[in-house]
Write a structure and sequence with these properties.
This is Cold shock CspA family protein. The protein is an alpha+beta fold. It is built from two helices and nine strands; from the N terminus they run βαβββαβββββ.
């Protein structure tokens, strides 16, 4: 980590051993992703005058390349936050899940959502189960009958407008549509 872990306790004394516990959780996060650049943790009780079982707000801010991951554990949603150790563990478990999602996204394991575009059917070869559509920028995409949602390939006609998602790769027919939805 490029910066020291910052730990703050608001409205309470620092409980013995909690800082070490938090640093241990941060070290555990670094085993999943070793490029965390900064980490800030805030711990505060919900009410200052509880006689038994305070509930704790826990906030974990992680800075990673290109993003900030923020986890807030609110006591009203998590009654187990009555034990400060459990509250901190829960917050770091949530941070770990978000960090793992971030790592999967960085590796390309999570695909970005692609918005369908509008195109027009230009050619159909029904007996062979394929055709072509023209994109909004004038290019032509191959489409296989299996790419047509709902098995409605036979309902398509030249000139029909369709929504489509272009596949990033090419097949033997060139650029192609992976999903086609008749309008």
């Amino acid at each position: 980590m490029q910066e020291q872990v910052q730990i703050a306790f608001r409205g309470m004394d620092t409980p013995m051993g909690i800082e070490d516990s938090i640093r241990g959780h941060v070290a555990h996060l670094e085993t999943f992703f070793n490029r965390i650049t900064a980490c800030k943790v805030l711990v505060e009780p919900e009410h200052k005058r509880h006689h038994q079982g305070n509930l704790y707000h826990i906030r974990v801010d992680l800075v990673v390349p290109g993003r900030e991951i923020v986890v807030k554990r609110e006591p009203s949603a998590h009654h187990a936050n009555e034990d400060i150790h459990v509250a901190i563990k829960d917050a770091f478990d949530a941070a770990k899940r978000q960090l793992q999602d971030y790592v999967r996204e960085m590796r390309g394991d999570i695909k970005a959502h692609v918005e369908p575009e509008i195109g027009e059917i230009t050619h159909l070869v029904r007996d062979k189960g394929y055709g072509f559509l023209r994109t909004s920028d004038g290019n032509e995409l191959y489409l296989h009958k299996n790419a047509v949602v709902g098995g409605k390939f036979d309902d398509l006609h030249v000139g029909d407008k369709v929504r489509y998602v272009a596949d990033a790769g090419e097949n033997e027919k060139g650029p192609h549509a992976s999903t086609v939805i008749p309008l």
